[in-house]
Amino acid sequence: MEKDEQVVMHAIEEDPDDVVPWNQLDLYKLCTLQFKASQTYLKAAEFPCNYPRIHQGLKKCTGPQQAHAVLSNLGNLYRQPKRFNAAKTMFEKSLELCPGYFPAYNNLGLVYVAEGHWEEAKSCFNKALHSDPLLDAAKSNMMKAVAMSRLCAAMEKPLLE
Question: pLDDT by residue (tens digit) across 44-97?
Fold first, then answer.
């Protein structure tokens, strides 16, 4: 076990109801491609669709900067297994705490892309770019969403018009 992981585990031992160290451990496991361990910690913390518990834990954060980032990261965790409603809720809560937080807008746009809601996706990518015009991920995602929306629109037209 690495030193950073030991510190987080110690924080969990001190206060198992604190959401932040659980989330940090989940993200660490996810980033190190330890998906099963990440899911285990996510389940152990009783995260799924339990926003009141998450919100209580976030109140212990040192400031709103951490809270909205944690919520956005949780949205990413939910997005990966295609739990889109839970992901959207986390991104929306993140944006309530910090309007204009471009990573949450960008990732919310990705949820809409996965659902095939092109206009909503483009709107989110536009908001991300408005917050940070140099955000390459949002630029790339916007181009893909525009192309996919055109392709889908073309496929919906009858062949013999």
Answer: 554 444 444 454 455 454 455 577 887 888 888 888 888 899 999 999 998 998
What are phi and psi for residue 99, nearest 5 degrees? -55, 135
Cα–Cα dist 18/41, whole Å? 13
Q: How far apart are CA 20 and CA 103, in angstroms?
A: 19
Q: Is the pTM of this model over 0.70?
A: no
Residue 102, pLDDT above cutoff 70: yes
6-19 core/surface letters (b: 16 or more CB in 10 A; e: else): eebeebbeeeeebb
